[in-house]
Amino acid sequence: MSEYKLLTFPKGGVHPPENKLTADLAIERFPLPSKVYIHLQQHIGVPAQILVKPKDRVRTGQLLAQAQGFVSANIHSSVTGTVFKIDEIYDASGYRKTAIVITPEPEDEWVEGIDTSDDLKADIGQFSSQEIIQKVKDAGIVGMGGATFPTHVKLSIPDGKKCDILIINGVECEPYLTSDHRLMLEKTEEILVGTRLLMKALNVDRAVIGIEANKPDAIGKMTEAAKKYEGITVQALKVKYPQGGEKQLIKAITGREVPSGGLPIDIGAVVQNVGTTFAVYEAVMKNKPLIERIVTITGKDLDHRGNFRVRIGTMVKDIIDYVGGLPEGTGKVVLGGPMMGKATKTLEVPVGKGTSGILLMRREETKRKKVLPCIHCARCVTACPQGLEPYLIMSLAERGIWDKAEEAHAQDCIMCGSCSYVCPSNRPLQDYTQFARNTVMSIMRARKKK
Fold it and tell me: N or C, which end of the chain is more exposed by having fewer CB within 10 Å?
């Protein structure tokens, strides 16, 4: 990596073991399940409104539920089959939410106009900026790095704001996860065309693809391919968690800092995940809605781990059964990575648009250690990439002192877990800072409405 100048964010960060056990495993297509469970809310914002009813036959790519309002996303059928029922099904949050249950047929019957070939399409000149944004909206694309913010909203620049740089997030700094890594290796050209489409939608002439230095094969392949695409460069980044955090990535690449309470567009930047970028390519160039995604299935005791192209709505239980079942001694099943992912209380939860990984962790790795008193070592302060004081925010949250928590910028927490990771007293700093963040933000929203 000596030929690359490695950039990073200046404050905080940690170095958890990478455990990229599936980095060398090519993407496999996961078989059709016996049922799919497609939630109406797989995005930040308002749930979509149902357009189908039980016993309706639907085709692959058909619109099942329509976005409501600006911050919302369309939901499409990931299979051809019959609507079995509409029911309340657990999602990644642990709550039951409305989902459309479909019994698939053995073969796909795609909605007319969707191109399912692997042929590369690169002529973006036929589309205007607004046409690209509309196609992204129609396809129901959301941020696929985990945030699930509707992509068309990010591409719709508010009056008075201007974007001058697009950053494509190929960092994938979460331990274990490799879905983005494999996508960059196997769909290089498609990601670059998707990047050009996003540039056109935003009316910018510069895009930077950020990739951590632990993926030299992806850096090399993307760098070589990007030479054919005007305005796109690849930037290698130091291996440091949470390098893929939106604010940290912007700081590393541009030197700009998103202000407290602000958004990337406030400093002229828009960030999109590589998975999202590939989905944009498919939506605009192939008329394909977001009905499947790459998911890393991994764990130290799992024999058939890998990266799978999975239909949205496939049950986690079906996936685990396919790869050999739960290994003995499994303590938790985490949706996402070990740092920011959520442990699921049931395997009867479907893959959604934001499901980047399914991690099976050993029981001994998941046990919480005895919580000890704070020793005021300030390691959490040193580790926080946002420059916060997690020990103080936890203390304020325990006491419900929300005005002081706001003064301590609890609302700026990015929930990366670096504070908990380094704490020698095993204090649940991330739990309390997240609680404080959400509470303070609710108070701020209520105050703004008044």
Answer: C
SS3 99: strand
* Fold entry, domain 129-286: Rossmann fold (3.40.50)
End-to-end CA distance of the chain: 54
Q: Quick check: 87 pLDDT over 90? A: yes
Residue 2 has a pLDDT of: 42
Single-letter amino acid, residue 232: I
Average pLDDT over residues 187-208: 98
User: Which of 357, 213, 217, 331 is CA-nearest to residue 275?
Assistant: 357
Segment (H or E) for 322 = helix 316-322
One DSSP character per residue, 100-131 reads EEEEE-SS--BPTT---S-------TT--HHH
Q: Residue 311 is inside which H or E element, if any?
A: strand 306-311
3-class SS of residue 158: coil
Instruction: Provide the 10 A C-beta neighbour count for residue 44.
Output: 16
What are the residue boundaries of the structural domains of the chain, listed by start? 129-286, 379-449
Quick one: tokens of 143?
A: 């941020």
Cα(225)–Cα(207) distance, rounded to whole angstroms? 14
User: Which pLDDT does position 449 carry in this prediction?
Assistant: 87
Cβ count near 425 (within 10 Å): 17
Residues 294, 352: Cα–Cα separation, whole Å: 11
Map tokens 């070589």 to a residue.
Answer: 224
**Token pair recorded at residue 288:** 């394909």
Q: Angle, nearest 10°, between helix axes 274-286 and 179-186?
A: 50
- Contact call for residues 108 and 77 (beta carbons, < 8 A): no
DSSP secondary structure, 34-87, as one string: S-EEEES--SSSBPPEE---TT-EE-BT-EEEE--SSSB--EE-SSSEEEEEEE
Residues in CB range of 183: below 8 A, 6 or more apart: 27, 191, 274, 275, 278, 294
Taken in order 139, 197, 110, 350, the sign of the CA dihedral is: negative
Of residues 313 and 145, more confidence is placed in 313
| Burial bucket for residue 52 (CB in 10 Å: 0-12, 13-18, 19+) | middle
Contact predicate 289/139, CB 8 Å: yes
What gap in Å lies between CA 381 and CA 318, rounded to an integer?
Answer: 42
Whether the Cβ atoms of residue 374 and residue 425 lie closer than 8 Å to each other: yes
Q: What are the structure tokens assigned to 243, written together? A: 């390098």
Q: Which amino acid is at 353?
A: K
